[in-house]
Amino acid sequence: MLFINTAFAEQTSIKVGPKVGDKAPALTVIDAKKSVVNIADLTAEKGLIVLFFRSADWCPFCKRHLIEFNEYADKFKALGYGVAAISYDSTDILNGFSKAQQLTYPLLSDQAAATVKAYGILNKDYQMGDDNYGIPYPGIVIINPAGNIDHKYFFEGYRKRVKFIDLYQQLSTAK
């Protein structure tokens, strides 16, 4: 899948994470019920959109982005994509935010930052022992049904984010 529209062209993605076309690393995450979840559990007919975010607890930019993602979640699902979001937050924090905001997609807890590390998107500004150790660079990956990365986009700062209206337009016109 090739993206050439403004969802990604307006801002420069940093060069982190797996390469487009590579097999997606496994997820080491748990859901609201503290059950292990994998890529196959989440993937729909056309694939899976995974949003990596810093925190649903203390990051106001993340909270707003998660709410915006929710506004498009059903649209992405109607296009044939599974949707999920991953953070280092505990399941209690994620459950509280999800219920308060009535999210229609799962928020998944990355245990010991294993998924963030496997994807190569661990924010290097924080070291082991720091309160914020384990946060990713914010961004998305789109994994196709075969389990390969079709697209990725990550930001160094916390203010820049993928615009879901543009992503939706890209995906709705992709062949």
Describe this structure in words.
The protein has 175 residues and is α/β, with parallel strands linked by helices. The protein has one domain: Glutaredoxin (3-Layer(aba) Sandwich), CATH 3.40.30.10. The chain contains 6 helices and 7 strands; from the N terminus they run H-E-E-H-E-H-E-H-E-H-E-E-H. It has helices at 6-9, 39-42, 60-78, 91-101, 114-119, 164-173, and strands at 29-30, 36-37, 47-52, 81-87, 107-110, 139-143, 149-154. Strands 2-1-5-4-3-6-7 form a 7-stranded mixed β-sheet. Helix 3 (60-78) packs parallel to helix 6 (164-173). The chain starts with 5 loop residues before the first helix and ends with a helix. Residues 1-10 have low confidence and may be disordered.
Q: How would you briefly describe this protein structure?
A:
With 175 residues, the protein is an alpha/beta fold. It contains six helices and seven strands; from the N terminus they run αββαβαβαβαββα. α3 runs parallel beside α6.
Which features does this protein show?
single chain, 175 residues, alpha/beta, Glutaredoxin, 7-stranded mixed beta sheet, 6 helices, 7 strands, 18% strand, globular, disordered N terminus, antioxidant activity
Provide the fold topology:
Blueprint: H1 6-9, E1 29-30, E2 36-37, H2 39-42, E3 47-52, H3 60-78, E4 81-87, H4 91-101, E5 107-110, H5 114-119, E6 139-143, E7 149-154, H6 164-173
Parallel strand pairs: 3-4, 4-5
Antiparallel strand pairs: 1-2, 1-5, 3-6, 6-7
